[in-house]
Write a structure and sequence with these properties.
single chain, about 280 residues, alpha/beta, Spore Coat Polysaccharide Biosynthesis Protein SpsA, Chain A, nine-stranded mixed beta sheet, two-stranded antiparallel sheet, 10 helices, 13 strands, about 25% strand, globular, binds uridine 5'-triphosphate
């Protein structure tokens, strides 16, 4: 059973400056809900109810979002606006949220290692909230699809999607043996390769299920691309000594760490989710 989910949210979000100068990128709203809340909702739909956040300086708003705001609730009590807080209130009542800090930005792998004390010796999910995923007609969310696979295979799993060759340099890219439609056993992985060095156009997106032995591997992983401790390097070791699967998920992902992806996601949610629920 996957019971815990880690959100590494310590990054500076420099692509969104000045918006992210005093506010975490993960609090930026897609229409009327922060990115991070969509991520938490996706995880709860996968049966996960314990959340750990690896935060950094200037990220207090994240903790406040997952806490009760008595003054605000008192102010709108008995008005039609109470309903607007129902979704976050429901998350607060039915889940636990724990926070730890990454003091130095040493990369995603280092952020995940920093979350070890929140996870313990359990398999766990990782969500990068700036990769915003919608079902887009699929039955389940991406994490629910991955939890289902984990229950079958019991090893680390990364979500992947095909990206244009000219975009592979933004991602971790895999090579793998096809096991069945949309599922690969990873044989190689390269972090942010140039188009001519990429082993495929199958890019890792921000959804992972990791077995806890990843922490020991991360402890001995040396800084890689850009001088950061890369989760891709640790996963490659796991793939070589054991098994790591790559899963081409059903649904649609928006790269909300980029302005273009963020605007596309906003338009999508406004047209396909918000307007329909407001009717
Ligand atoms: P990114 O590099 O995409 O995010 O990291 P960023 O640094 O926040 O954004 P830009 O590039 O400056 O605009 C991917 C994810 O890993 C987390 C980030 O918060 C983001 O969710 N991360 C990255 C950490 O938590 N710690 C790190 O040291 C690095």
């Amino acid at each position: 059973m996957i019971k815990k989910c880690l959100f590494p949210v310590a990054g500076y979000g420099t692509r969104f400056l000045p918006a992210t100068k005093a506010m975490p990128k993960e609090i930026l709203p897609i229409v009327n809900k922060p990115l991070v809340q969509y991520g938490v909702e996706e995880a709860t739909e996968a049966g996960i109810h314990e959340f750990g956040f690896v935060t950094g300086r200037g990220k207090r708003a994240l903790e406040d979002h997952f806490d009760i705001s008595y003054e605000l609730e008192n102010q709108i009590a008995g008005t039609g606006k109470e309903e607007l807080l129902a979704s976050i209130r429901d998350l607060i009542n039915n889940n636990t949220f724990a926070f730890t800090r990454q003091n130095e930005m040493k990369g995603l792998g280092h952020a995940i290692l920093t979350g070890r004390n929140l996870i313990g010796d359990n398999p766990f999910a990782v969500v990068l909230a700036d990769d915003f995923c919608v079902t887009d007609g699929a039955k389940d969310g991406v994490l629910a699809q991955m939890v289902h696979l984990y229950n079958q295979f019991r090893c680390s799993i990364v979500a992947i999607e095909e990206v244009p060759k000219e975009e592979v340099h933004k991602y971790g890219v895999i090579a793998g043996e096809s096991m069945k439609d949309g599922l690969y056993r990873i044989t190689d992985m390269v972090e942010k390769p140039s188009a001519d060095k990429a082993p495929s156009n199958l890019a890792i997106i921000g959804r992972y299920i990791l077995t806890p032995d990843i922490f020991e591997i991360l402890e001995r992983t040396t800084p890689g691309k850009n001088g950061e401790i890369q989760i891709t390097d640790a996963l490659l070791e796991q793939a070589r000594t054991g098994c790591v699967l790559a899963y081409q998920f059903k649904g649609r992902r928006f790269d909300c760490g980029s302005i273009d992806g963020f605007v596309e996601a906003t338009n999508y949610v406004y047209e396909n989710i918000y307007k329909k629920s407001a009717k």
